[in-house]
Amino acid sequence: MRPSFFPALISLLVLANYSGAVTAERDINNGQQLFARECADCHGSFGEVSNDVVPNILGQYEGYMLTQMEAFLSDDPMNARGGIAGSLKRSILSNISVQDIQDIVAWLGTLDYTITGASKEDAEARGELALNGWWLANFAGCGNCHGDDQQGLRVRNPGTGELDPGVGAPFTPKLVGLKYGYIKRQLEAYQTGRRAGGQSAMKHIMAPLFQTPRMLQAIGQYAEDVHIVPVTGEQAGISP
Q1: In whole angstroms, what is the distance from residue 164 CA to residue 228 CA?
Q2: What percent of the chain lies above the pLDDT cut of 70?
Q3: Kindly report the CA angle at 122 between 117 and 127, in degrees rounded to 5?
Q4: 88-143 pLDDT, tens per residue?
Q5: Residue 191 and residue 215 in one domain
Q6: Sequence-ordered strand ranges (E) for the chain
Q7: Maximum mean pLDDT: which of 25-29, 124-128, 184-188
Q8: Less packed terminus of the chain by CB within 10 Å, N or C?
Q9: Are residues 92 and 191 in the same domain?
Q10: 149 band by pLDDT with thresholds 50, 70 and 90
């Protein structure tokens, strides 16, 4: 199958996943093996690596993962992901099948994880700047889409007010665990138009952050000590 076919096929598969259509059975074992071979060197054994260059993908929504893989393979300048990372991802993804891509994402979805350092109390313990970052991440436009403590948009039970962790926005990413350098570079890419992906509103939402650099620094201070940690073993769907 030629690489040029991938974007259209992935689009169809993403739509199928969220319209109730039947797709091919996912092969979790194949996904695990492919991830170890193609992805783990940069993203870690379970997708947990997070630094100024590499984003953690452990715990990320399946729909968002598939749309990003489509963007890496896209020739459309309004949707494509460029740069060195984009070229590397494109070369890797174009050499595996659509089914392989789905298998990788499905395997990632079986992994359990814990999150540390994301709460208001955690941020408060780290000082005023980190606490300001927590407020910005949750209430300055970010939290409306990216959710409480950057863990994805979720729905509150109207009776109890508790979050329902099983409900989220599949095409809006969780930001939990991402580091300052990576976040800042992606925001700058949206601001300059280098990264569009259909999210033109991002440029306007983020405008105040760039007018006051200390706001970005606060978010970075908060994000620095937020970690997403894999729970290894059989309970995480990981074969010996």
Answers
A1: 19
A2: 71
A3: 120
A4: 777 888 888 899 999 999 999 999 999 999 999 999 999 999 999 999 888 766 77
A5: yes
A6: 113-116, 155-156, 163-164, 227-230
A7: 124-128
A8: C
A9: no
A10: confident
pTM for this predicted structure: 0.78
Q: What is the secondary structure of 144-210 as a DSSP string?
A: HHH-GGGS---EEPTTT--EETT---TTS---TT--HHHHHHHHHHHHHTS--TT-THHHHHTHHHH
Which residues, in sequence order, are CB contacts of 169 under 8 Å at separation 6+? 61, 145, 147, 152, 153
Q: Which domain holds residue 105?
A: 3-111
pLDDT at residue 239 greater than cutoff 60: no
Residues 105 and 123 in one domain: no
Would residue 200 count as lying in a domain?
Answer: yes
**Distance in angstroms (rounded) separating the CA atoms of residues 223 and 75:** 33
- Any domain includes 229: no
